[in-house]
Design brief:
The protein is α+β, with helices and mostly antiparallel strands. The protein is built from 16 helices and 10 strands. The protein folds into 3 domains: about 100 residues, no CATH class; about 90 residues, no CATH class; about 240 residues, no CATH class.
């Protein structure tokens, strides 16, 4: 099914131009497309539905249903231009003989093709199809309904098909322990890891994971009192739970938009997350750009909120006090900052990221995905979208006399980079929370031992 293209001929209702559409059959049962007639620029929308049915012999068959707007069916097999699109691959040419999935394989070696195909399959089978299950698991976790949380985890591990059952048994072997809060938090994280590994997991991701571990462990050893006072500060002000909840919401929001991101998943390489989207590839199906734009803004704001944790860790390491801010990032001459983390958290978002430069690893992790100018230009000065060519033109001044362009694909890539960082922030939060739970358990045990001795 995935490598199938269906050709249809249409007549523009406005100018009469004959248009050939070549639409790919992907993982989704319904896709929407929007493009312009190249002759009169009339906007055209096309809804494509794959309906599964069983014939008299009990065989599974598929029927394609088309719901056009702006065009009508044509009996002609001659056409003025061709629109080509596939829901799971970018389009590199509108040539009538081109196929997006074949174009995507060109100039790649067999190993690279296999890895990309596996990531694409795993993403659709484990994430897109199971989005509702994942949301329900998290909902039960956040509500403290651990009986249904456990049922959801067990059902998720079993899988719904033989294929995903085998994959999940390899990724999540055995029964996950759910005896205490630490176990439950760990189980939730492992389920997410199983679903998001095609997007997130890489050598750099593991290196960052171990960097977080060693950074926290070192502070807990060398700055025990300062570090634990900082964790108490985060807990008492609800920063950890608030940021964790927002990270989960953002991750699940990505699942809601997964069909919009689907055409770039094959091109995405978690081992090279800062690579630009191929310049010859277009995403020209009906992307909900307002939702994508909001997703980008939300990612920026969430990373900004998380700085209260990251900067606090940096402050402890370099100045032995979580409240000791290096300097005021709003001032050019680096004047002393008046206040602590609570005051820092309240200032404008963009300047905060400057303070990451004090710790090279954190700086190189976060700042490359922060593009405040792009976000501000699109948000304040407006933009236009070329659906045919897959370009966003955004203005860079109020008068709209200056502009830049970015492809849909590159904008989606930048959103995925934000997602990866948010996902990793969630890991950092989990580590701090996990260690806090361990400390509390040890303190409770010590208190109980002390009480027993007195008795």
């Amino acid at each position: 099914m995935l490598l199938m293209m269906i050709g249809k001929f249409w007549r523009c209702n406005s100018c009469g131009a004959i248009i050939k559409t070549k639409i790919g059959v992907g993982y989704q049962k319904e896709t929407n497309y929007k493009f312009e007639c190249e002759r009169c620029h009339q906007e055209i929308t096309l809804r494509f539905i794959i309906k599964e049915y069983t014939d008299k012999l009990g065989r599974t068959n598929y029927k394609d249903i088309w719901i056009p707007d702006g065009i009508s069916k044509s009996k002609s097999n001659k056409f003025d231009f061709c629109f080509t699109s596939h829901p799971d691959f970018p389009t590199r040419t509108s040539d009538v003989y081109s196929f997006p999935f074949i174009d995507a394989l060109n100039n790649r070696d067999e190993t690279d093709i296999l890895q990309r195909q596996l990531r694409q399959v795993f993403w659709h089978e484990l994430s897109m199809k199971k989005a509702k299950n994942l949301k329900m698991i998290y909902r039960n976790y956040s509500l403290g309904d651990f009986e249904n949380f456990k049922k959801g985890i067990i059902a998720f591990q079993k899988g719904s098909t033989e294929f995903d059952s085998k994959i999940l048994s390899a990724l999540l072997p055995g029964e996950l322990p759910l005896n205490n809060n630490m176990d439950k938090l760990s189980a939730l994280s492992r389920v997410l890891d199983a679903c998001f590994f095609p997007i997130v997991v890489s050598k750099n991701h593991f290196e960052l994971y171990h960097y977080f571990e060693s950074y926290i462990a070192d502070l807990n050893q060398t700055e025990y009192q300062n570090y634990n006072e900082f964790v108490d500060f985060l807990v008492n002000n609800n920063y950890l739970t608030d940021i964790q909840n927002k990270c989960f919401e953002y991750i699940f929001n990505f699942l809601d938009l997964s069909e919009d991101f689907s055409p770039v998943i094959f091109e995405w390489d978690p081992e090279n997350p800062d690579a630009t989207f191929p310049s010859d590839a277009n995403i020209n199906n009906n992307i909900s750009f307002d939702k994508i734009k909001s997703f980008s803004v939300d990612g920026f704001e969430l990373l900004s909120k998380s700085l209260v944790i990251i900067i606090g860790l940096i402050n402890i390491k370099h100045r032995h006090n979580y409240d000791s801010i290096n300097y005021d990032p709003r001032e050019r001459n680096k004047k002393p900052f008046k206040g602590g983390l609570i005051e820092f958290n309240a200032i404008a978002n963009a300047p905060k990221f400057k303070l990451l430069s004090e710790e090279n690893k954190f700086d190189k992790w976060i700042n490359p995905v922060i593009d405040s100018k792009l976000r501000n230009d699109i948000g304040h000065f407006g933009y236009t979208i070329d659906s045919n060519k897959g370009y966003i033109t955004y203005y860079t001044n109020k008068e709209k006399t200056k502009s830049n362009t970015i492809t849909y694909g590159e904008y989606l890539f930048r959103c995925i980079r934000l997602l990866v960082r948010v996902y990793q922030v969630n890991i950092l939060v989990k580590m701090i929370m996990y260690q806090h739970l361990i400390k509390n358990t040890m303190d409770e045990d010590a208190t109980q031992v002390s009480a027993d001795i007195k008795i």
